[in-house]
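Quality-control log, excerpt.
Job 1 of 2 completed; input and output follow.
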Amino acid sequence: MIDKFSVLYVGNIDLEDVGSDGTPADQRRYPSERLTESLDTATQAAELMDELGFYALWMAEHHFQHEGYECIPNIILLGTHLASRTERLKFGCAFNIVPMWHPIRLAEDYAMADILTDGRIIFGVGRGYHSREVESLGSPVIDNDANRELFEEQMEIIFKAFNQESFSHQGKRYSVPAQVEYRGYDLEKVTLVPRPKHLPVEMWQPIVSGRTIDFIARNGIHGVVALTGETLVEQIFEQYRDANAKYGQNLALGENLALGVGFYLSDSQEEAIERLRPYHDERYKWFAPFGFVRYADEQGRTWGTPGAPARTPYIEDGVQQKAWFCGPPEDFIAFLKDLEEKYPGLEHIILHWAEGMPRAEFMEQLRVFAEDVMPAFTDRS
């Protein structure tokens, strides 16, 4: 039953001249004082969402983005700060890019945040997709197999650090502890100090392939599926349920998953589409070259694969694919009720902030959603 509503804010600043005919993404460059607007925007969004009764603000970790789209380099640090400015809102990591961290440092930072916020930081992990940041910080991402191998070894260390009083690890890239003499004895194990307060740690990871599904099911990780066409969503949800069953976890369809959707509320679908269009198009100017068009054609083929469309999508495509909703609040309620019926285990909806939308406009959208849509789900006994 859907009852938890969150927002994904990847760290965009207010951009000028947005849309398909606006400033090309690669020509955007902003000074530091503009790029730090993302921190103030996150603060304003968190305080408003806390007031309105949202479940979590999810934010993204990225580096070097002078273009202004994803400008938060440390989401655990920012989430811990924002928890001190709010009362109930949780802060999700969407996602800590593990290959850009030493796994023990990441585990330590999360553990401290878990303790300091009394469990209001949601741990999320990802493998990364920006070659500029992952490769510059010393890890592979262009070589997909090397990236996956590194990530899985790092995750093995993180699981040990969280769940074992003391641990050791000998792998291809990491030896923990180091084989050195310490205070007159040979090291055999180390202890994460501190360990998280809330165990087992609830973990989330984006689902982008079948190999991802098997890994997260095997390790008890929850999955996020965002801005994805309904055909692909159905396939992923079924694969996730079946993979969990293979490992002895029987889940209802949609359980332990979050579905991310874009939206714009207005009096009519036509008006909402036209208002959202420039912001939607600005998003895909930046993200489409990374392969982030997760739609399917009539034969179920993912866009960009042989025979399927390979173009940048229009907002009409997103609405038709049910990755984006445009229209009045009562129709959004019906849209979500249909999802509830189709996926009885689904609890989490994450509302996506279209990267080109000014914060004032998006926050007004959140107010309308909280007043006219959310109570239909959160006020049920």
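Job 2 of 2 completed; input and output follow.
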Amino acid sequence: MKVFLSWSGHKSHQVALVFRDWLPSVIQSINPYVSSEDIDKGARWSTDIAKELEDSTFGILCVTKENLEAPWLLFEAGALSKMMDKSSVCPFIFDLKRAEVKGPILQFQSTIFEKEDVKKLLMTLNKSCGEAGLKEELLSKTFEVWWPNLEESLTSIKSERSEEEKDISDKNLNNEILEEILELSRTNQKILRSPEILLPPEYFDFIVKEKLDKDLSERERELLSEQRHLLMEVRHRTMMMHEMVSSYRIEKRVLDDEFYEEFRRYIDLLQRHQMSVDKTYKIMNRKY
């Protein structure tokens, strides 16, 4: 009996390949088919696949988080349901819960990655084999022998992160970093527009009005001058970072070396500014 294994995405493909090798070990009359084409990269639906669909008696859809709404998987599910009875099409739910499944796939009776549920799937497949199927007692014994092999293979796939998941994770991480930097940039702009939020008015009075105080030493005057220049540079650099972050978000660019280098300079500047503020406060405390 021919069994068509439908897949879409890296993890789904791995699951399909495991079943292709495992199913004939349990029920020797099963002849599984897995398309070797990378359907996620735009390969056309070939006549070979169409023929296999037509000749297959049973269809298993390898459903994962990454392909739950994949057009190709839904297309093959529809094609399988038209060519055979719905009871002969079974989604294998892998690495997600039944409650997470939605859409057209819900019309089929699904199987999850649990021993008893997989055994029920094997019983259904065996019945579809007709006279070529195994006796129920023999099937149960054979299943017990081969189940650990399937469990180990699928568990190893479950622990892996697919390229699609890595891309999503990297994008999410980039977005989180950009959001944090953008928020930092907005906060600094707000502080520069209304410095009293962070520093009391007497601090700036000291910088602006007392800079000509004859009691100030040359070193103290230099420190105050440095503080004014740093404030101007922080304002300029904050505006630059704000524009840069906005540009990366709009263009959906991945954070690169150029970005990290600019961000490092920005953080260094903020640290220098904080050190200068601390020194200035010491002068204020000493003189007043």
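Post-run check on job 2. The radius of gyration is 33 Å.
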